[in-house]
Write a structure and sequence with these properties.
With 213 residues, this protein is an all-alpha fold. It contains 9 helices and no strands. The chain has a domain of 144 residues.
Length: 213
């Protein structure tokens, strides 16, 4: 079921300080995490002595792995079923407000404080699992996160380009304006195809109905 859309900006917290923490200018996380991704890749090569080709491979793997984490978080966390009042409040706070106000540019990315905490946790986890290669992998993960943020911002704030990138505009618009129980991938529809959450294209449905007449 598609969610409603309200033109005015929504409010999450009554407290003005907490409310301010829910917003950010898109340039801040993009600068932070694109830079962090590149610096982490450089660090793994220049300071840890990881071979450049190995670092590059793990950097790309990290960026690809982010697309899976993005999909899983969007599907299972951001759209957690509102079976209790607490869950409904949690879901609205972290994501529902975006569905009600999809063109509120101040809420098209997680606040930097929360993003930095999560980034440090992920990098620490990858370092623990992979050793020195975890920095290159984590750098790719952060670079993938920034690229996702850029794509998400562009989808909501600009018209789709007249090239192959228009696919991700169309895919995310299906999620917002047709039904939010599918099309969970933002930077790519790949995982929706893999896990069977690809929604039916409304134009295809209309065409199929016409063919049955």
């Amino acid at each position: 079921m598609a969610t409603r859309h309200v033109a005015s900006a929504g409010r999450v917290f009554k407290n003005p300080f907490l409310e301010a923490l829910t917003k950010t200018h898109i340039a801040i996380p993009l600068t932070l995490f694109w830079s962090a991704g590149i610096i982490t890749l450089w660090y793994s090569i220049a300071k840890l002595g990881v071979a450049w080709w190995m670092a590059a491979v793990f950097f790309l793997l990290g960026a690809f792995f982010f697309t899976l984490v993005e999909y899983l978080m969007h599907r299972y966390l951001y759209h957690i079923p509102g079976t209790t009042e607490g869950k409904r409040k949690f879901q609205y706070t972290i994501h529902g407000v975006h569905h009600d106000h999809p063109r509120d540019k101040s809420r098209l990315a997680l606040p930097p404080v929360l993003s930095i905490v999560l980034a440090l946790l992920f990098i620490s986890l990858y370092r623990l699992i992979m050793g020195d290669l975890g920095f290159a992998f984590g750098g790719g993960f952060l670079f993938g996160y920034s690229t996702y943020l850029a794509a998400h911002y562009a989808i909501h704030m600009y018209k789709p380009p007249k090239n192959f990138l228009s696919v991700i505009w169309k895919h995310h618009n299906l999620h917002h304006y047709v039904g939010d129980d599918g099309a969970f991938g933002v930077s790519s529809p790949f995982w929706d195809h893999v896990f069977g959450t690809m929604p039916a294209d409304p134009k295809r449905k209309a065409a199929a109905k016409e063919n049955l007449l």
